From TrEMBL:
This is tRNA (cytosine(34)-C(5))-methyltransferase. Its main location: nucleus. It comes from Oryctolagus cuniculus. Residues 412-422 have a biased composition (Basic and acidic residues). S-adenosyl-L-methionine binds at C106, A107, A108, P109, G110, S111, K112, D137, D164, D190. Residues 1-352 form the SAM-dependent MTase RsmB/NOP-type domain.
Amino acid sequence: MVTSRFSKSRKSNCINEEQQFKELEALEVDGQKVEVPQPLSWYPEELAWHTNLSRKILRKSPQLERFHQFLVSETESGNISRQEAVSMIPPLLLSVQPHHKILDMCAAPGSKTTQLIEMLHADMNVPFPEGFVIANDVDNKRCYLLVHQAKRLSSPCIMVVNHDASSIPRLQMDVDGRKEILFYDRILCDVPCSGDGTMRKNIDVWKKWTTLNSLQLHGLQLRIATRGAEQLAEGGRMVYSTCSLNPIEDEAVIASLLEKSEGALELADVSAELPGLKWMPGLTQWKVMTRDGQWFADWDEVPHSRHTQIRPTMFPPKDPEKLQAMHLERCLRILPHHQNTGGFFVAVLVKKSPMLWNKRQPKVQGRSAETRDPTQSSPAEPAEERPGDSPDLDGQSASGTEDPEAIQAAENSRDGRNRKDGVCGPPPSKRMKLFGFKEDPFVFIPEDDPLFPPIEKFYALDPSFPKKNLLTRTTEGKKRQLYMVSKELRNVLLNNSERMKVINTGIKVWCRNNSGEDFDCAFRLAQEGIYTLYPFINSRIINVSMEDVKILLTQENPFLRKLSSETYNQAKDLVKGSVVLKYEPDPAKPEALQCPIVLCGWRGKTSIRTFVPKNERLHYLRMMGLEVLGEKKKEGVARTDESTAGAQQPEDEASEEQRTGEVDSPAACDPAGPEPPR
């Protein structure tokens, strides 16, 4: 079964369902009738769809070639995410708002992370939401898969870090000149599990599954969930989930966490939050089985020789009143036959008060920073650690008798010794043992850097442009790429460079152009960040028609005179360099495309070209109703039935341009070169 999720923030840019799915009606492949994609009844606003097509049929059937290309290209451009249906449930139950600070503890490969990013950007008119997502994974290689997934959505509010989730460091933020511990409003705790709920699609589960898997994972799952609860803000919500149906990995972890919290956590009743979702309540009684098939109903029955494998936290509480007060029936167990999916377990926890081993912490955000009275928020004090818990901050626990000013002075002194201003590099080796690739540093552009004024002047940037949020990945030589992060992530980066290993953050907004020094600006715009950057640009904007967009996306380097007269008149007086090409829908023409398009382009001597990735080109062409077929694509330029004739330059016209030297040299438009993989 193929399940796809449309990005809510780009819903208006998505293809009309009837247009894409109509051709699948009455179609049979290998004697099997193709099910037209249907919306998931429980997913809000019909943003998730599913069909019964297998991957093998989808990839190899000629009849489904166009539908397969649609799924692949739209997925790569970030408009669709292909994901197991039940895996979409945990982010939905987090009830994310754009101002929330979110931690995804075990994020790779990143499907749930993309959901969280979409929720932050629910309002596309706000380029920098107040909230952010910190996505973590312990596997260094899988972190780069996570980066690839997150990059599709082009958000300045995502940071990928590489840590063991059970001991993920506690971070700090600067609040009015004072450092406060960062507590998250929402935490997704999708822990590693035995995966027995995926046995319908994963044949390896049948070969390798044993009860020992759950016994070995239980301790790790409990440590990760405990660490998440410690970092959750009071009033915040944490979702614990697994793709296992074994109560040792599910209810046993939740019961143990609730018991040790002593009322600080409680299970939320979310039975009415996803109408249409079928599920069964959590278990309140279960037994533990060893690898050789021996069952135990109580810890007292376990022989001493088994104590290394079986722990007391794996059993349900003995006290009936305590067990009833936990409300384990509020957990959701989704079985495969409920709605033709995999098996899944979800529990939603709400933090009512600080954990016993934590001191005072901030309330969860209930409104935006602009409307909140700063005098109402009290700074959080450093937290006390339980014996045996992971070290807080730099491995030192702060007792209630310590002087906060002395702690602050020590922090500032240590920060000053180990990093330069605005440079966020990998943590020193003495503090943290790093694995995997060594990452380039994150260097924020100083306000007095001579690199920025030419950019500001060339694009007539608005005074409100947050130039302090620009960063690069090099401390020496020419800066080749400029990235941008949100104000809140900048705060996190500057105050925690010694505590965390950052794999990636920010979106690319400008690229150095080799020939840019010959013009007024050495940097051209990057399509990846154009929707974030566009609201601040007041110059070099060319308004284009839908026919102009078709020409620009189907021809490699069209001459200016091929565009409409209105577009030609806007472009003819512009000097060579990067431009913004903006299509604005006309409500008076309902037959035309009714959603805006913003493209990065290059104004040459007599032509304009676009710098748009292949899959994004295909997306825009589909939006305009043009056929996009694989055999008609050449070197990343989509050929269409309607535009193929006009895509080829007449030979005499091209040769005339070449003789007069007016054809733009590719070197004048191409960026300095591809960025090395990270």
